[in-house]
């Protein structure tokens, strides 16, 4: 029988059906615990095998929807290659052997330099250049967030004529992204792939940029499951954290794999 009740593993009492549903999974804060730095992320030994088994159980209808680059995700999950919407929907890799399609222009050098000038003024802040977006991490210096936000907004206003970028807030990070990309738009595109088409989407995420993905999943008749953290409180979240998400997925795959 290919139905699983999530509550058996803790987490939401959702019945997931591997033959008729598709999984869309955020990465940081959802599949893996938040770390002090982007490079410090630890991938649990069992996660790669778990995702591989889910791909089989769902006949390929499993995608990672992340703010990370596709290359980052490939590195974390090696040797597994998945369908990935990277850089908050700015890059798509629609099949394991496909090339990455960029849906936005790379951030121009002058914008990156302008942002770097802001960041240099605050020791401890990290900047991640991801091609079509820039992440400014202030986890190590939380008191600097208001200053950074004001300065980054000012910098973006200066370059607005040449680049249509917006500033979004993530988990102790400001992300500079093209206005017209989103995780939600990426889910709509992936849902058209043969492996995903006609399946009910289940999107699991923990952060602001997952909101558009939740909306897209619900628009397609699916459901949104929230993970507790800096964005969702325990009261409104469906999962206490990534460990519970992994346990829920593991229970699901156990019950759906003959
Ligand atoms: O969409 P996601 O998969 O959740 O990616 C969102 C961002 O995740 C990373 O930053 C976050 O995780 C870091 C490591 O745990 C943490 O140090 C940081 O404070 C978090 O904001 C990643 O570095 C970003 O590029 C992603 O956009």
From TrEMBL:
Pathway: Glycan biosynthesis; trehalose biosynthesis
E.C. designation(s): 3.1.3.12
Zinc-finger in keyword set: no
Catalyzed reactions per annotation: alpha,alpha-trehalose 6-phosphate + H2O = alpha,alpha-trehalose + phosphate
InterPro entries associated with the record: HAD-like_sf, HAD-SF_hydro_IIB, HAD_sf, OTSB-like, Trehalose_PPase
Protein purpose: Removes the phosphate from trehalose 6-phosphate to produce free trehalose.
Name listed for the protein in its UniProt record: Trehalose 6-phosphate phosphatase
Encoding gene, per UniProt annotation: otsB
């Amino acid at each position: 029988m290919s139905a699983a009740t999530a509550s058996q593993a803790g987490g939401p009492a959702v019945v997931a059906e591997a033959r008729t549903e598709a999984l869309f999974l955020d990465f940081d804060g959802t599949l893996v615990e938040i770390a002090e730095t982007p490079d410090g992320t630890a991938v649990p030994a069992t996660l790669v095998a778990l995702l591989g088994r889910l791909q089989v159980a769902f006949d390929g209808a499993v995608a990672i929807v992340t703010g990370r680059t596709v290359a980052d995700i490939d590195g974390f999950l090696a040797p597994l290659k998945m369908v990935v919407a990277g850089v908050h929907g700015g890059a798509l890799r629609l099949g394991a052997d496909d090339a990455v399609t960029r849906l936005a222009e790379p951030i121009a050098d002058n914008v990156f330099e302008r942002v770097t000038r802001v960041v240099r003024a605050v020791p401890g802040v990290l900047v991640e250049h991801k091609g079509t977006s820039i992440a400014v991490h202030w986890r190590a210096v939380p008191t600097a967030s208001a200053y950074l936000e004001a300065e980054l907004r000012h910098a973006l206003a200066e370059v607005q004529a040449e680049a249509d970028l917006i500033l979004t807030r993530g988990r102790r990070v400001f992300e500079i992204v093209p206005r017209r990309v989103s995780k939600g738009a990426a889910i709509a595109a992936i849902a058209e792939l043969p492996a995903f088409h006609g399946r009910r989407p289940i999107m699991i995420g923990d952060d602001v940029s997952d909101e558009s993905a939740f909306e897209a999943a619900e628009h397609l008749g699916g459901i949104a499951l929230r993970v507790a953290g800096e964005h969702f409180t325990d009261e409104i979240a469906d999962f206490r954290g990534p460990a519970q998400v992994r346990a829920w997925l593991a229970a699901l795959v156990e019950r759906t794999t003959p």
